[in-house]
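Appendix B. Chain record.
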Amino acid sequence: MQINTDLLQKISSAAARNLDSYLQKALTASAEHGSFGMQMLDQLHEKLPRTSCNDCGRCCNSVSIFSLEYHRLIREVMATWPPERLRRLVQSALRFDLRQAEAGKEKRLRCIFRDDESKVCLVHPVRPFACRIFGLLKEDGKRECEEVKDLNRPETVITQDYLVSLQAKVLENSESYRPFPDEEAIHFFPFEFWFFRYIFSPERALQIYREILVPMSTPLTKLWHKHLELPTAP
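Structure tokens predicted for this chain:
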């Protein structure tokens, strides 16, 4: 599946013209969402083991999150970031082309919350489930990354069933959309999808997801492999 370069160019061009307008829309949408689900989300996140790593950043790519987690991230930066940093965040969200990267043989989209200069996550206290579970022990005892250290003693074995049970309440209270007509609706999309869902519309966000985010990310391409031959929308 090829990236829709025309759509990518339109979004990149709009970044300079409408940056402040998009920032206001994103902040307003999350402010209007309010604190619904935030305390519950924080409590569920706390039920996962605490970890540390060497901050190499190899895993800091755009990951799929729930709408509640999106709002939690936006509300955090609204409360703690200065205006100029917020503007840079929106600019980064709009400029996919500046965040393309390769991890081995895979294509990735770098996370907008990774500060490569200081080598830290800018939203680490409120990072989503996908980041919190990366590198934890699997049921077979193998890790996705040996650099991640479980701070619990003894180390914790996180099972799929446990993760499902933790996220059940989040699923009940998050938005869902159907990426492709013949697929079931899902609740988890990259941060960029939710950003465009709130500054544009769900329909436009889904188009961007299918025609830019999926072909730009090898993991997402594999997830929707049977749709690779779908033509792009006009």
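Further analysis of this model is presented in Appendix C.
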